[in-house]
Amino acid sequence: MQTPIPVTVLTGFLGAGKTTLLKHMLKAEHGLKLAVIENEFSEAGIDSQLLGDEPVQVMTLANGCVCCTIHTDLTKALYLLLERLDAGEIAFDRLVIECTGLADPAPVAQTFFIDEELRERYILDGIITLVDAAHADQHLTQSIAQAQVGFADRLLLSKTDLVEPAAVEALTERLARINGRAGIRVVEHGRIDLAELLDVRGFNLNTDLGLTLRPTLRPVLKSASPDRISTLVLRTGTPLDIDRLSDFMNELLESHGKQLLRYKGVLSIAGDERRLVFQGVLKLYGFDWDAEWKPGDARESVLVFIGDELPEEKIRAGFAALSGE
User: Which top-rank group of organisms is this from (predicted)?
Assistant: First the structure.
């Protein structure tokens, strides 16, 4: 069986520096064989000569990386790359997909959940969102920019040299309120250690909730925040009944699935010594049994939701009833 190709989705608002970062990734001597799918609506093409009338154009660069420019839907481009890879025409072992500045990353992520063949050949590693520190306040008035932050497994701050340190700190706190899971890094003129972008494993079913990056999530009053997107964390030390848990999640997804950008849980289930882990994007989710709880572990169930105007009190009440608290 072939090893699935890890996929990194790169998103961010217009002018945040996605193309600059992609140029660095493609031209750096990192020894990796990257393929990049670039949407032609980006603010500046990586290689202008690639733009033409063909729906998909593929070019192998000097360092062995592959640049794919698309004028068609993503699924066709993904299959074309596989065909050329299998035929020995190109070689790559990682894929980076650039979303347009105004794009919702959800349909891109869902592509790797829905299509069975693509799910076997590719594995979604993480969503990386660039945030323009100099224009973040303006960009984050747009719900799509907030959604890009909410979907992210990692946030990259660009143009921090153009703003005061206090403004960067305030922005970092705001981003943490929107998305409590994502680690925050600074990228300087497209330069960053690729280890920060690859093998993020944001879509792995494991017990890492990302919360260790920010151990304290301060509650924020709705009236104090201008953001539609926020992080909701639910915890209980009471082992959960799996049937009641299933009913709770099914009702939540049925009523508010479109508002749940990303969610993940590590749960203690009554009558079972194993952790139950699950995660999802919108209404698509997966779950699995993980390792057993170790002696001395605090068997605490934790659910993390990143959502768009979630009815927090309703969800908290439903979870409290589920856990008997």
Answer: Bacteria
Q: How many CB atoms lie within 10 A of CB 61?
A: 14
Largest CA distance in the chain: 63
Q: Which amino acid is at 79?
A: Y
pLDDT in tens, 290-301: 999 998 888 899
For 92-114, how does the pLDDT look when each residue is reduced to its tens digit (9 = 90+)?
999 999 887 667 888 888 888 88
In sequence order, what are the residues at sequence separation of 6 or more whose Cβ sits closer than 8 angstroms to the Cβ of residue 308? 143, 146, 147, 150, 228, 229, 258, 259, 261
- Sequence-ordered list of residues with C-beta below 8 angstroms from that of 19, at least 6 positions apart, any chain: 42, 43, 44, 45, 46, 98
| Lookup result for tokens 């960009």 | 139
Buried b (16+ CB within 10 A) or exposed e, 86-115: eeeebebebbbbbbbbebbbbebbebbbee
Q: Report which of residues 190 and 185 the model is more confident about.
A: 185
String of DSSP letters for 41-76: TSSS-SSGGG-SSSSEEEEE-TTS-EEEEESS-HHH
Question: Per-residue pLDDT tens for 186-239?
Answer: 999 888 888 888 899 888 877 777 654 343 334 444 445 678 999 999 999 999
Distances from the Cα of 106 to the Cα of 81, 124, 251, angstroms: 21, 12, 21
Greater model confidence, 62 or 92? 92
Nearest to 314 by CA among 238, 259, 265: 259
pTM for this predicted structure: 0.85
- The gap from C-alpha 48 to its chain's centroid, in whole angstroms, comes to 28
pLDDT of 173 > 50? The answer is yes
CA distances from 6 to 66, 134, 251 (A): 15, 31, 32
Q: Are 166 and 92 in contact (CB under 8 A)?
A: no
SS3 313: helix
Give the angle 200-99-188 at the CA atoms, nearest 5°.
60
